Amino acid sequence: MTTTHLAEDSPPEPSQALQEHFDATIAHDQRIEPRDWMPEGYRKTLVRQIAQHAHSEIIGMQPEGEWITRAPSLRRKAILFAKVQDEAGHGLYLYSAAETLGADRADLTDRLIEGRQKYSSIFNYPTLSFADVGVIGWFVDGAAICNQVPLCRSSYGPYARAMVRICKEESFHQRQGYELLMTMMRGTESQREMVQDAVNRWWWPSLMMFGPPDDASPNSAQSMAWKIKRHSNDELRQRFVDMTVPQAEKLGVTLPDPDLEWNAERGRHDFGTPDWDELMQVIKGGGPCNAQRMERRRSAHEDGAWVREAATAHAAKRARKEPSA
Ligand SMILES: [Fe+2]
Ligand SMILES: [Fe+2]
C-alpha cells in the first residue's frame, strides 16, 4: 500500500513533466519560446516550414525582379524595387526565426541550393508582361496573407512575431498590385487584355499555393494539433476564393473557372478543382521555370562568396583587436 502511495506521489520523469508543460502551453494558447523544451518532431516541423517559407521569399524576388529594369515609369520602378526588397527582408527575418530553433542559415541555404528543401510552387511560373506584377501582388501576396494571418497566432513565438510584421507588408503588396491593375483597366483595350491574360495564367497556380487537398496532406493534422498551423489547406483556399471574387468583379476581369459560383446554402463560393497533377509536377521540379530559378539562386550564392569571406575576415580581425572581456 505504501509502495502504491509513493508511486502515485513521486514526481513524474523529467521528460514527462516537460512534455506535460509543453502540452499545457499549447492547450492554453500560450507561446513556445526558444528556451522552452519542445518535442523533436515539433522543432523539425517548424524548421522545415520556416525554412521553406524563407526560401520562398528569396526565390520569390526573381519573377517580379525581372521587371525592375523594364518598369514603365520611374514611379512603378520605385514601387516594384521597394516591394522586391521587402521580400528579401521577409526571407531574412524568417532565417533568423529558424536560427532560434538551432538551425544554421548557411546549412539551410545549402539545402535549398542542393534541392533538399522546397520553396513555393508559385514562383516557378514565368512573368510575361508587366500586368503579371499587378496580378502577383493581388493573387500571390493575397494568398500569402490568407495563409499567414493565422500564423500570427502560431504556437511558436518567434515565428508568430515575424508574421505580424510580414503580414503588414504583404497587405501593402496586395494593394499595390490591385492599384496597378486598376490603373491598367482604366487604360487602353490592349492593357485590359494584358490584365485578363495575366489573371488567366495566375489564377489556378495561385489556388495551388495552399497545397494539396486536405485528404492528401498527411502532415497537416499534426501541425494543426501543435497549433503551428491554424486552418486546413482547403479552408484557406476557400477563404482566398471568397475574398477574391468581389475584387475581380470590381476590377472588371473574369476568373477563368466555369464552375465558380455563389452557393447561397453554404454562404460561400463553389469552385472547380485545380490540376493536382500539375502541382505535383511543379513540386518535383518540372514547372516552367524551376531550373531557371534554381540556377539563378545558385549563381547569386556563388557570386556572393567574396562578400561572405570578407565579412568573416572582418569579424575575425575585430575579434583580434577587441578581445571580449
Ligand atoms: Fe513576403
Ligand atoms: Fe509580398
TrEMBL record:
Composition bias, Basic residues: 315-325
EC numbers, comma separated: 1.14.13.149
Region (Disordered), start-end ranges: 296-325
Organism per entry: Streptomyces cinnabarinus
Keywords associated with the record: Oxidoreductase
Pfam families: PaaA_PaaC
Name the UniProt record assigns to this protein: 1,2-phenylacetyl-CoA epoxidase subunit A
Main enzyme class: oxidoreductase
InterPro entries: Aromatic_CoA_ox/epox, Ferritin-like, Ferritin-like_SF, PaaA, PaaA_PaaC
Classification via SUPFAM superfamilies: Ferritin-like (SSF47240)
Gene3D superfamilies membership: 1.20.1260.10
Single GO molecular function: phenylacetyl-CoA 1,2-epoxidase activity
Gene: paaA
